Amino acid sequence: MIFYILIAVFVLGYLAIALEHKIKIDKAATALVTGTVCWAIFVLGYDIVPDHLVEAFDTFKHHDHSGLLSVFYEHRLLHHMQEISSILFFLLGAMTIVELVDAHEGFRVITDRIKTTNKVKLMWIICILTFFFSAALDNLTTSIVMISLLRKLIDDKETRWFFAGMVVVAANAGGAWSPIGDVTTTMLWIGGQLTTPTIVVNLILPSMVAVLVPLLIITFRLKGNVSRPNVSISDGGEATTTFERNFIFAAGVLGLLFVPVFKTVTHLPPFMGMMMSLGIMWIITEVLHRSKNHEEKSNLSVISVLRKIDSASVLFFLGILLAVAALQEAGHLILTADFLRTQLNDIYLINIAIGFLSAIVDNVPLVAASMGMYDIQPDNVTDAWDIAFKQDGKFWQFLAYCAGTGGSALIIGSAAGVAVMGLEKMDFVWYLKKISLLAIAGYLAGAGVYVLMFA
Predict the structure, then answer these.
(1) CA–CA distance, 346 with 398 (Å, rounded to integer)
(2) What are the distances in angstroms from CA 421 to CA 59, 212, 274?
(3) What is the value of pTM for the model shown?
(4) Less CB within 10 Å around the terminal CB: N or C of the chain?
(5) CB 334 within 8 A of CB 55
C-alpha cells in the first residue's frame, strides 16, 4: 500500500509543478513539499528494509550497534544529500560566476559579434554554440551561460522561451558525447563501462543528429526577426572598461573550463572545482576594483551578485532531487529497470525506454540502477548478449546517449532543463506543447542513427 501511496504523492507533486501557472503556486514550494513528504512516507511506511537495501543495512548495523531502522533511513537520506548538495553547490557556483560576468557586461564579447536578428540564423548559431560548449563544460553550466546570452539578444519572452527550450535540447545532446558533458556519461566513464575515445567517436554523430533534426524542422517554421532589448548599460556597466569586461569574461570562461580539469586531476567532486573558480573570481574582482569608490564597485562585487541569484531555482532543484531519491530508496527505479530487462529483452529497446523514463525521473538513479544490475563482462565472452556489456560495449554506449538526450522530452527531465525552467520561469505545459515533440524527434532520430551504425 505504501508503495503506491509514494507513487501517488510523486505524481500529484509532478502535476502541481506542471500546472504551476494554473494553480498559482510556485513550483519551488510544490517541489519542496513533494520531496519532504515522499521521504516522510518512506521512513514511516517502510518498517521492513526493502530487499535492495538489506546488504547496506547489514553493513550499517556492523558499524552502528544501535541497528535502528530509523537511524539507517536517516543515514540513507544523508547519503543522498551528499550528492544533492554537491549538485546544488555546483549550480550556485556556476550561477554566481555567470552573474558576475554579466554584471561586468562580459557577454558583450559574444553578443556584439552576433549581428543577425533573423530567427533561423540566430537559432542555428545558439544551438551550435550550446552543443559544443556543453561538451567542453557540461550541460548544466552551458545552459546557465546561454540563458544569460539569450537575455542580451532577445527581448520578447515567448521567443526567448523557444530559444531556451532548444538550448536544453542542444545542451543535453552536446553533453552526451563527452565524458565530462553530462553527469550520466561521466558516471559510465568513471565506472569503467566506457572509455573516452569510444564516447567521443561513437556518440558524436547520433548526438549531432539529435540537435540537427529539431533544427531542420524549426528552419521551416520560424519566420521573421527577433527584437533585441534596449541597449542600456546598467548594473555597473558604466563602471567597467573594455579591458575589464574582456578580462572578466575570459577569467569566467577559464574558471568554468577549469572545473572538469580539476575533477580529472584530483578526483574530487565537480563542485569543489567550481567553488575554487568562484573564489579566484572573487579575488580577481576585489583586486580589479579596489581603487574605485564604494558606489562604483558595489554592483560589481560577488556580494552584490549573490543577492541576484535565483534561490528559488536552487530550492526547486532540491525538492525534485529529494523526491526522486525517495523513489530510488523505496525500490521503484530498480523495479522499473528490472521490468525493462525482462519485458523488452533487447539492449536498444531497453535504452530507448530508459531515455524516455529519464524525462520523468532523474537520469542519474536510472543509470546508477542499470550499472548495478548489469556487470561489465570480461573480454573473452562469446554470447551475443554478454558482448554488449563488455567495456565499451554497445549497451553502455547507447545508455550514455539515451540517458543524456532522452531527458529533453520534458523540461524537468534533466539538470539543464530544471535550471532553464527556474531561470526563465518557463511553464511546464508550454515546453510540453512547443518543444517536447521536437526533442523526441531528435532523440529518436539520433537513436536510429546509432542503431544503423552498430546494430
Answers:
(1) 12
(2) 40, 23, 22
(3) 0.75
(4) N
(5) no
